[in-house]
Design a protein that fits this description.
Elements (H helix, E strand, L loop, with lengths): L1 H27 L7 H15 L7 E2 H24 L19 H12 L15 H31 L5 E3 L1 H27 L9 E4 L5 E4 L4 H10 L20 H25 L3 H27 L23 H13 L15 H12 L10 H20 L5 E2 L2 E2 L2 H27 L1 H4 L7 H16 L14 H31 L15 H32 L2
Antiparallel strand pairs: 1-2, 3-4, 5-6
Helix pairs in contact: 1-8, 1-10, 2-6, 3-4, 3-5, 3-16, 4-16, 5-6, 5-7, 5-8, 5-12, 5-16, 6-7, 8-9, 8-10, 9-10, 9-11, 9-17, 10-11, 11-15, 11-17, 12-13, 12-17, 13-15, 13-16, 13-17, 15-16, 15-17
Length: 562
């Protein structure tokens, strides 16, 4: 049954890619859609309030600066809300807020949610007031997700345009992403969650007495307001500490499957948007098929690792796979699917504890994040996550045939290659350096409260890979609410969000100024299975060269030592 679910999931994602991708292309190009009669007046109102001139396009530098300033402003506002939450009215009651919102934790959380990482060094139900969750975190899920989609639109335009000095208008892209994409889907999805039993209230926490005579506190709150947009905007931060494993946040297999579709469909569809706007539809499909192929490889490995009987239980004559850390209502199938989907899409909306996975089971989500989440990826950011490795493949292929490489009719010269090289190296430099610092310092090792050795190393590497990929997942054996981890993980989050986006947009700006060259006999086709195989191999080779030694010290050696 689990493989039937995997197949149905992929069929739905690929089947929706074309209609959704074409709709996103119309939103990107400001063409008419069926929502225009209702949304055009709202759009005009926002332009007037913000002083935006929609017809005024931005240069690459101005677009990047607008994106950076918007992110900084969002982080600052959220930081203030978090620091002064004690003066906000409403629940939960003060005795239930047992984790203090220190300055470093507030700064880390503000950076986390403004970068779509939603890395959480706290438990939501014992740290945040209801209004903070709604006006702070829910708002950031919308705004940060829309900003990521805007950057994706700009990157696509840069590769598609000719002789252009502009990439579009960031504020227009932001508003249209909010109104035409995120807001209507989030309203529908949240109503479905309420129908399925997800709470949407401001009630006090419920005190109940169990059958054993003990007292249990059941957290309440406006959960449904957060849960769907966290997936739709590829954010992932949970209302509760257990995130998608909590029965109030994710009560049924149906809500889990719906959440996975919300995560994957929009990023996958942007490949079709890319091909349509670039006037190379087959190119978009080739990149989407590369994503699907990588997804299947990860799914197979993780599934086999978790369905095999755990070797440490071999002497107990227990049959079945590894159910440690997994919810019975989801089982291994839903848990593995969620782990692979969320690790590939910068959405840390886990529904099982990855620290309880087998070594190869942990290896899959870790590799997905280290590769830059090239499968589907974040909302908008997933476009350049797959195109940048494709450009590396094109460059290598061009060198093999002794010709200046081209992609979509644009030359990749030494100037463009410098931006691509910086992009390719940034993740490994940040993740490996920060991991090394954490391993050799007392402050870093102090976070290892459960495991040491290879598993402990994996937990640290996993944390920085997650933050660099703007994912937010963590292995539960690492305690990260300390000044050291709040500062260093924030550095990784900022580099993963703004460093990579700035490099990708700078490259797109260079491509936008070029003239599209005609296809000749020496042009490497970018819409064939052969090109797909080249991109597939480039991704795996680049990842192995950058991270294989680190992986060998963690999950690989742990697997071999069993």
């Amino acid at each position: 049954m689990r493989w039937l679910e995997y197949i149905v999931f992929l069929v739905i994602v690929v089947g929706l890619a074309r209609p959704v991708g074409l709709y996103l292309a119309r939103v990107c190009q400001r063409q008419r859609t069926f929502l225009d009669p209702a949304l055009r007046p709202l759009e005009s109102m926002f332009y007037r309030l913000l002083g935006v001139r929609p017809e005024q396009a931005m240069s690459t530098g101005v677009y990047i600066a607008s994106f950076l300033l918007f992110g900084a402003g969002c982080a600052l506002l959220l930081f203030l809300v978090l620091r002064f939450q004690r003066w906000l009215p409403g629940g939960p009651a003060e005795p239930y807020l047992t984790t203090p919102m220190t300055t470093d934790l507030a700064a880390n959380t503000a950076v986390s949610f403004s970068t779509t990482t939603t890395w959480q060094a706290y438990g939501g139900e014992n740290t945040l007031r209801y209004l903070v969750q709604v006006i702070g975190l829910v708002a950031q899920n919308f705004l940060a997700g829309a900003a990521g989609l805007a950057v994706g639109f700009a990157f696509i335009r840069g590769l598609a345009r000719e002789r252009s000095a502009t990439l579009g208008n960031f504020w227009v892209d932001l508003i249209r992403s909010l109104l035409w994409v995120l807001l209507p889907l989030a309203v529908i999805g949240s109503l479905i969650l309420v129908w399925q039993g997800v709470p949407l209230n401001m009630a006090p926490y419920t005190v109940v007495h169990t059958l054993e005579g003990r007292t249990q506190i059941i957290a309440q709150g406006p959960v449904a307001a957060l849960e769907f947009i966290k997936n739709l905007g590829t954010n992932g931060g949970g209302f509760f500490n257990a995130n998608g494993a909590h029965p109030y946040a994710n009560p049924t297999p149906f809500t889990n499957f719906l959440g996975m579709l919300a995560i994957a469909v929009l990023p996958a569809s942007l490949m079709i948007t890319f091909g349509h706007i670039a006037r190379r539809p087959r190119t978009g499909w080739v990149l989407l098929m590369v994503m699907v192929a990588l997804f299947i490889v990860g799914l197979v490995v993780c599934d086999r690792a978790e369905t095999a009987p755990p070797p440490q239980l071999a002497g107990l004559h227990i049959s079945g796979g590894n159910m440690e850390g997994k919810e019975v209502r989801f089982g291994i199938g839903d848990s593995v699917l969620t782990a692979v989907v969320t690790a590939n899409t910068s959405t840390g909306s886990y529904n099982s504890m990855h620290d309880s996975y087998q070594p190869l089971g942990v290896l899959v989500p870790l590799v997905c994040m280290l590769l830059g989440e090239v499968v589907f990826g974040g909302l908008g950011t997933g476009v350049y996550s797959i195109v940048m490795p494709a450009l590396v493949g094109v460059f290598l292929g061009g060198l093999m045939i002794g010709r200046t490489p081209e992609y979509l009719g644009k030359k990749i010269t030494s100037a463009e290659m410098r931006w691509i090289a910086l992009y390719a190296l940034l993740s490994s430099m940040v993740v490996l350096v920060l991991t090394g610092i954490a391993v050799i310092t007392n402050a870093g090792r102090a976070g290892l409260v459960t495991n040491t050795g290879p598993r402990g190393f994996t937990e640290i590497l996993f944390a920085y890979a997650s933050c660099m990929a703007n994912n937010g997942q963590a292995m539960a054996g690492l305690s990260v609410n300390s000044v050291f981890y709040n500062v260093t993980t924030a550095i990784a989050m900022l580099a993963g969000r703004y460093g990579l986006a700035a490099l990708a947009l700078a490259l797109a700006g260079r491509f936008a100024t070029q003239r599209r060259l005609p296809i000749t006999a020496g042009t490497i086709p970018d819409d064939t299975p052969t090109f797909g195989a080249l991109v597939f191999g480039t991704i795996l080779l680049g990842g192995a060269l950058s991270f294989l030694p680190a992986l060998a010290l963690g999950p690989i050696v742990e697997f071999l030592r069993r």
